[in-house]
Amino acid sequence: MKIDIPEEKKLVHTMTVPMRWGDMDAMGHMNNTVYFRYMETARIEWIVSLGVAPHPGGEGMVIVNAFCNFIRQFEYPAEILVRTYVSHPGRSSFDTWVTMAHTNAPDVLCATGGATMVWLDFPQQKSMPLPDRLRRIVS
User: Fold this and answer.
1) pLDDT confidence of 56, banded at 50, 70, 90?
2) Is the distance from CB of 50 to CB of 43 less than 8 angstroms?
3) Minimal CB count within 10 Å: which of 5, 72, 102, 107?
4) pTM to 2 decimals?
5) How, if at all, do strands 79-87 and 126-127 pair?
6) How far is CA 22 from CA 99, 116, 129, 135, 139, in A?
7) 135 phi and psi, to 5 degrees?
8) What domains lie within the chain, and their CATH numbers?
9) Burial 74-99, CB ≥16 within 10 A → b, else e
10) CA 18, CA 78: separation in Å to the nearest integer?
11) What is the radius of gyration, based on Cα positions, of the chain?
């Protein structure tokens, strides 16, 4: 099943990730699990840059689902352009979307993916409304 990234989305973060030799699998291309690592790396860098890193004794964002569409292979060596977008803010959640491409061909997508983020009260293990400062960013 392929999940399409919506046309209406807001670019919030861009980073470049160098593919490591150890990111390859026995087939000589980037292992499927590594795509999720790169999405995680971009998501965490973006969250930390906002000053809303998770605080286990308080509040923060968690993902409730994640997906990846594998379109083209990455082979070593590669510099990977990871772009993060947001859309669909709700009371306590919003969607994130990611595109991955070679830095030397930024418009040729090799993978797309995303995750739904929920703002959580960690001690209570319950969702709570997005903080206003975060809502302004994701709206």
Assistant:
1) confident
2) no
3) 107
4) 0.94
5) unpaired
6) 22, 29, 40, 38, 38
7) -60, -40
8) 10-138 (3.10.129.10)
9) beeebebbbbbbbbebeebbbbbbbb
10) 6
11) 16
